[in-house]
């Protein structure tokens, strides 16, 4: 079979997708060979780790030219011991994600012959209102949980920062973290979820597969090094499941982006601890982490959050979480 014939078979125009959502139908109207998804998933990481790592690489080299060892915390550079402003350190850590995000924006059309918007919600207008509402609700729930935690165990929390750097941190977080969260949601709940739907022709496989991969991606985080793989990875997998459920029920990733960005912004600005992946001059510092207690809190917060979204957006059809994706037998994926 020639390359031209393979490409033609790969892109059957407007395949018959019956009773399906725009988000789930979108990938079947593009090019879906496995090698395309392999390149699409790897390219953002190559860009972020080669080009995106240049600024932080320069900083690290400049601090080790005299032969002194690199200060580390949980396997990551310890900016505080290096004498680097933590806000600058945050920007250095988030810069690669900006490149990853725009790599995803650029690569979808040439690789899959469909628009970037199809990865968001099937090609409709971006539902910014959903994104903002999701972020607001998650921040409100997180604030209630933090206040409860501080009142329940006041000795475990100390005021860490009340200077003007907190305002700078808030501005940086609001501007930069949405790129980090947005990239992860576009990759896992958008791009790969659609890819697994093409592969499996159902919904539950994409939910499970992307959640596990999302958890494994965080396996090098300092928290995992400190508290153990089997303790921390289930929490990341669960968070991935929550975002995946939101995506399937709402037919797009806007709610997931909003909640994910809000979670990371809130933690960046209001709460830090010595083993946090985000080293920031946050308002509070938590002295001791109790992983399973934190996991229980995450489960409760997530249940409340999903319930609010379900009520507000009137989700009724839970078969969106497990139903088959029915397409024409002639579609070559």
Secondary structure: elements and pairs:
Elements: H1 3-10, H2 22-25, H3 34-50, H4 54-62, E1 72-73, E2 76-77, H5 86-112, H6 117-121, H7 128-152, E3 157-159, H8 165-200, H9 204-217, H10 222-227, H11 229-250, H12 254-270, E4 271-272, E5 284-286, H13 291-312
Parallel strand pairs: 4-5
Antiparallel strand pairs: 1-2, 3-5
Helix pairs in contact: 3-5, 5-8, 7-12, 7-13, 8-9, 8-11, 8-12, 9-11, 11-12, 11-13
Average pLDDT level: 90
Which term fits the overall shape? globular
What profile does the largest beta sheet have?
3 strands, mixed
Query: Rg to the nearest angstrom?
Result: 21 Å
Helix tally equals 13
Q: Count every beta strand, where a strand is a DSSP E run of 2 or more residues.
A: 5
User: Order of strands across the widest beta sheet?
Assistant: 3-5-4
* Count of all domains: 1
Q: In angstroms, what separates the terminal alpha carbons?
A: 15 Å
């Amino acid at each position: 079979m020639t390359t031209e014939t393979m490409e033609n078979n790969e892109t059957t125009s407007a395949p018959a997708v019956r009773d399906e959502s725009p988000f789930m139908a979108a990938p079947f109207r593009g090019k879906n060979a496995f090698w395309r998804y392999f390149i699409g998933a790897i390219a953002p990481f190559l860009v972020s780790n080669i080009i995106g790592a240049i600024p932080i690489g320069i900083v690290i080299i400049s601090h080790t030219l005299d032969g002194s060892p690199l200060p580390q915390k949980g396997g990551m550079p310890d900016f505080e011991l290096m004498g680097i402003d933590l806000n600058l350190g945050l920007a250095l850590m988030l810069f690669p994600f900006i490149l990853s995000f725009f790599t995803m924006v650029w690569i979808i059309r040439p690789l899959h012959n469909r628009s970037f918007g199809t990865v968001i919600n099937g090609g409709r207008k971006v539902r910014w209102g959903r994104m903002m509402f999701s972020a607001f609700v998650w921040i409100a729930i997180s604030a209630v949980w933090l206040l409860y935690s501080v009142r329940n165990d006041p000795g475990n929390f100390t005021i860490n920062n009340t200077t003007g750097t907190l305002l700078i941190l808030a501005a940086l977080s609001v501007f930069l973290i949405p790129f980090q969260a947005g990239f992860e949601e576009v990759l896992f709940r958008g791009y790969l979820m659609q890819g697994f739907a093409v592969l499996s022709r159902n919904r539950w496989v994409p939910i499970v597969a992307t959640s596990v991969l999302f958890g494994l991606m965080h396996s090098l985080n300092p928290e995992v090094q400190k508290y153990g793989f089997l303790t921390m990875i289930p929490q990341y997998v669960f968070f991935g499941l929550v975002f995946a459920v939101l995506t399937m029920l709402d037919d797009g990733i806007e709610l997931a982006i909003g909640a994910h960005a809000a979670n990371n912004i809130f933690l960046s600005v209001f709460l830090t601890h010595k083993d946090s992946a985000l080293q920031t001059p946050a308002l509070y510092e938590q002295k001791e982490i109790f992983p399973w207690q934190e996991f229980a809190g995450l489960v409760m917060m997530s249940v409340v959050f999903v319930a609010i979204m379900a009520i507000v957006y009137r989700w009724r059809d839970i078969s969106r979480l497990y139903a088959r994706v029915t397409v024409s037998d002639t579609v070559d994926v």
